[in-house]
Every structure is written in C-alpha cells, then in structure tokens.
Amino acid sequence: MVSATDAVVPGLYGYQVAIWRPDGVVLVFAEFAGTINAYGHEEAATRAEPPVPLAQWQGIAESPDWQFQVPRALVDEGARLASGIPRAPFPEG
Predict the structure, then answer these.
(1) Would you say residue 87 lies in a domain?
(2) Cα 46 to chain centroid, rounded
(3) Torsion angle defined by CA atoms of residues 75, 81, 85 and 90, in that order, rounded to the nearest 10 degrees
(4) Is 38 among the domain residues?
(5) Rounded CA gap, 54 and 38, in Å?
(6) Is 33 exposed, middle or buried (0-12, 13-18, 19+ CB in 10 A)?
(7) What confidence tens digit (pLDDT) does each residue in 32-76 have?
(8) Number of folded domains in the chain?
(9) Does the residue 90 lie in any domain?
(10) pTM above threshold 0.70
(11) 47 Cβ contact partners less than 8 Å away, ≥ 6 residues apart
C-alpha cells in the first residue's frame, strides 16, 4: 500500500508505505509535512511536503535488504540503549 493523506490542518499531509512480507511481518513507514500533535506540539504544517519523497519510501520498504530475523546481539544492544529511557516512544501526559 502506498498513500498520501490529508490531515485536519490545511497543508499538513503525510506519506505512508506498508509492505506485507511473506512471513506475515508488516513494515509501515509514515512521515508528515509538519507536527502531528506529538510531544505536546500543536498540529501544524512546517514545510510544503514531507521531506522524503513517497517513491523513495516505497523503494526502502520493498528493498530485498530487509532481514526477517534480527540478530540477538542487536536486540540486546537495543535493550541496553533503551533501558535509560523512562517512557518510550511518547511521554505521557
């Protein structure tokens, strides 16, 4: 699925690419042309279009370089790096 979407705020739109892999994993990439009410920011268009072209996201999602398994060492390192973050990915409140 490849799509460009509109938002409530004029000019704030996004791109989304979703790829369903043979093993059932779904990769979803999304980006917007501004803030989308995350981290306490108001929704607002901050640029004319999202920074990465939609065709480039599609190419990334469809790349044969994606692995279906993550090496254990990478999982362990990610857990170590994230251990100091009190809340992820978004702060509460």
Answers:
(1) no
(2) 18
(3) -60
(4) yes
(5) 22
(6) buried
(7) 777 766 666 677 777 777 888 888 888 888 888 877 778 899 999
(8) 1
(9) no
(10) no
(11) 33, 34
Token pair, residue 63, equals 């790349």
Q: Which residues pair with 29 in a beta bridge?
A: 17
Q: What secondary structure, in 3-state letters, does 37-61 show?
A: CCCCCCCEECCCCCCCCHHHHHHHH
Residue 32: Cβ within 10 Å count: 22
DSSP 8-class letter at 79: H
Distance CA(15)–CA(6), nearest Å, equals 9
* Domain, as residue range, for 38: 2-82
- Ramachandran region of residue 24, left (φ > 0), alpha (ψ -120 to 50) or beta? left
Q: Which among 45, 57, 51 has a CA at the least distance from the CA of 17?
A: 57
Cα(11)–Cα(45) distance, integer angstroms: 6
Distance CA 10, CA 36 (A): 12
For residue 48, being part of any structural domain is answered with: yes
Report the helix count and the strand count for the chain, using DSSP H and E.
Answer: 2, 5
